[in-house]
Amino acid sequence: MTVHLLLGRLCVLVNHLPTTDSDLSNAIAAERERQRDTLAMIASENYASESVLEAQGSVLTNKYAEGDPGNRYYAGCEHVDTVEEIAIERAKELFGAEHANVQPHSGTQANLAAYLALLEPGDRILSLELSHGGHLSHGHERTLPHDHFEVFHYTLDVDTGRLEYDAVAERAREVNPDLLVSGYSAYPRRVDWTRMQAIAEEVDAYHVADIAHLTGLIAGGVHPSPVDTADIVTCSTHKTIRAGRGGMVLCDREYADIVDRAVMPGCQGGPLMHNVAGKAAGFGEALRPEFEEYAAAILENAEALSEQLRARGLELVSGGTDVHFALVDLRNTHPERTGLAAERALEEAGIVANKSAVPGDPRPPTRASGLRLGTPALTTRGFGPDDLRTVANLVVDVLENPADDAVEAAVRERVSELCDEHPVYE
Ligand SMILES: *Cc1c(COP(=O)(O)O)cnc(C)c1O
């Protein structure tokens, strides 16, 4: 254990919790080991740096700061003002945005704020169908936006697994939405933001681009940005960008006030200042030149993974990837190989990934027919393309040999070696 760690957040965990609360301390220590000893391939996950963890585990958790920097409802905010101003300035620089609100507690709340800022109750939202790669927060029937707005969906082309923009435009003319949502959870290809904006403009709708998954790729310059194109851009801050956990809204000055008031008091109270500090720390790291290399390496690794999965006979939705994950279509493999079965078998072998629906999926989302395999976290650990080809082989070995203990043990062993070769949180 390094001095840096001892002095940082971990002194809280290592020095105090074990004596004050051993049950909790043991669970946290076990989770740390799990993160260290398994392959984290959930595409939305990453390893935050120790600096980010330190900022998030700081005394900032104690402070109430409703309002905006310099204009709070509480006294004693001079230092949290500085923290939030740093986060805002870095976010603006990173994404070239005129305005940033870094207070949303999550990406879901950033979306809620965007809807609240732009829409009246009963207005129409048009977003991608969940089972085609959309997100719950884009108006799923069991969510708040679904109760307040009229929600319609567009789909991917089930044959190509891609957005066919002419079909989206046609659906927009049919629905005549007030808001078009772009940006997805499980779409393995680049999004043409300009085209989506043109579709929104044609039907006189606002355009919200949700870059939750793409933040790091956009900040690192390896995926086009919708900032300057869409009306409002929303995101999570802990996925590819690997900053503190939470959400953010980016927009032009003209929307700044309505966005700020939609975030607070519209959908939340006091900001989580420790998480805002985590965002600031992570954005600071993302502004360094090394981050561009990291973003490029995520894609290079996803490419190597995808090619090897295909070489071993697996089908990928859309035939490949432009982003940070591959989406495996299990439908034409074994009839019992559901996304859920694949997820469970891989977890037994130390590979943590998640099931995902594929476009036109005949199975319910609880079982699904797809498997999403992401590279952001492994890339943070220093895995390279050769490692990802190895990982692809391990994944296929597991999928091809269900309930074979010898294969599972061999894969586990190799996973262990890979983890030792690329340590994290030592
Ligand atoms: C992950 C994600 C979000 C937000 O998720 P939170 O868990 O609320 O931060 C929003 N939109 C998309 C497309 C996502 O993938």
UniProtKB/TrEMBL annotation:
EC class (word): transferase
Keywords from the UniProt entry: Amino-acid biosynthesis, Cytoplasm, Methyltransferase, One-carbon metabolism, Pyridoxal phosphate, Transferase
Catalysed transformations (reactions): (6R)-5,10-methylene-5,6,7,8-tetrahydrofolate + glycine + H2O = (6S)-5,6,7,8-tetrahydrofolate + L-serine
Keyword Methyltransferase attached: yes
Keyword Oxidoreductase carried by entry: no
Annotated (6S)-5,6,7,8-tetrahydrofolate binding sites: 130, 134-136
Entry GO terms, CC: cytoplasm
Pathway(s): Amino-acid biosynthesis; glycine biosynthesis; glycine from L-serine: step 1/1; One-carbon metabolism; tetrahydrofolate interconversion
Positions bearing N6-(pyridoxal phosphate)lysine: 239
Alphabetized GO MF terms: glycine hydroxymethyltransferase activity; methyltransferase activity; pyridoxal phosphate binding
Annotated ranges, domain Serine hydroxymethyltransferase-like: 18-394
Cofactor(s) this protein cannot do without: pyridoxal 5'-phosphate
PANTHER family the UniProt entry points to: SERINE HYDROXYMETHYLTRANSFERASE, SERINE HYDROXYMETHYLTRANSFERASE 1
Stated role: Catalyzes the reversible interconversion of serine and glycine with tetrahydrofolate (THF) serving as the one-carbon carrier. Also exhibits THF-independent aldolase activity toward beta-hydroxyamino acids, producing glycine and aldehydes, via a retro-aldol mechanism.
Subunit comment: Homodimer.
Annotated protein name in UniProt: Serine hydroxymethyltransferase
